[in-house]
Amino acid sequence: MSASAAHLDRVPVLADLIRADSRNSARVRDVILTLAGTAFITVAGYIAIPLPLTPVPLSLATFAVLLTGAALGPLRGGLSAGIYLALGIVGVPLFANGSSGWAFSSFGYILGYVLATLLVGILARRRSDRTVWSTLGLATLGSLTIYACGVPWLAAFLGVDLVTALTLGVVPFLIGDAIKIAAMSALLPATWRVVDRTPGVTPPPPTR
Fold first, then answer.
1. What are the pLDDT digits (tens) for 66-114?
2. pLDDT digits (tens, 9 = 90+) for 140-153
3. CB–CB of 119/69 below 8 Å?
4. Distance CA 109, CA 117 (A)
5. How far apart are CA 52 and CA 129, in angstroms?
6. Burial tier of 187 (Cβ tally within 10 Å: 0-12, 13-18, 19+)
7. Measured between alpha carbons, how far is 44 from 161 in angstroms, rounded to an integer?
8. 68 to each of 6, 61, 137, 169, how far by Cα in Å?
9. Whole-angstrom Cα distance, residue 181 to residue 151?
10. Whole-angstrom distance, CA of residue 141 vs CA of residue 203
11. Rounded Cα distance, 161 and 69, in Å
12. What is the model's pTM?
């Protein structure tokens, strides 16, 4: 690995601001943060609004997924979404409207949550959450990753063509996604500006 690549791998995310004094306390911190990420996605997913003409509800889960990935990094964020997915599959009612399992039209989006948190976390490790424009790109790529998993599943589950799936599973959510992306693009860079201006809060290089 080159020196520049190694440096990028050690760029902190917001969760690294929570310092740990030992390896054991770091493990405890990471477990708590991971479970908190799962809880955040769950609560946001419960804030769902059914829409006419589409079986996919409008929820805040996408915003929570992207923010979790950026704040926790790829490992903790990916595990948060993975735990959410696994618990829901085995029957814990974590998904929107208290649903669980996998045999429903919007399950593909939940699969996309895991990939999106990983991607957004990797980009955050490369400082893509530090400016408005780079955060716009980070959040847009994360949203597209969720759609890339959700739309094909929706098409297969409903037995419709791709154009119909895009009409049902993307078009109704574009305005809401634009608002979520704009909110992230304001929130994350502003948070880092506060961090950079506050003495004594710069985190040490991350260990994962």
1. 999 999 999 999 999 999 999 999 999 999 888 899 999 999 999 999 9
2. 999 999 999 999 99
3. yes
4. 12
5. 34
6. middle
7. 30
8. 23, 10, 16, 23
9. 19
10. 26
11. 31
12. 0.89
Q: Which residue is associated with the tokens 């995310």?
A: 13
Number of Cβ within 10 Å of residue 71's Cβ equals 26
76 is written with which tokens? 């903790």
Distance CA 142, CA 67 (A): 10
User: At 80, which amino acid appears?
Assistant: S
CA distance linking residue 167 with residue 132, whole number of Å: 29
At position 86, the amino acid (one-letter code) is A
| Residue found by looking up tokens 């260990």 in the block | 207
* Full 3-state SS string of the chain: CCHHHHHHHCCCCHHHHCCCCCHHHHHHHHHHHHHHHHHHHHHHHHCEECCCCCCCCEECHHHHHHHHHHHHCHHHHHHHHHHHHHHHHCCCCCCHHHCCCCCCCCHHHHHHHHHHHHHHHHHHCCCCCCCHHHHHHHHHHHHHHHHHHHHHHHHHHHCCCHHHHHHHHCHHHHHHHHHHHHHHHHHHHHHHHHHHHCCCCCCCCCCC
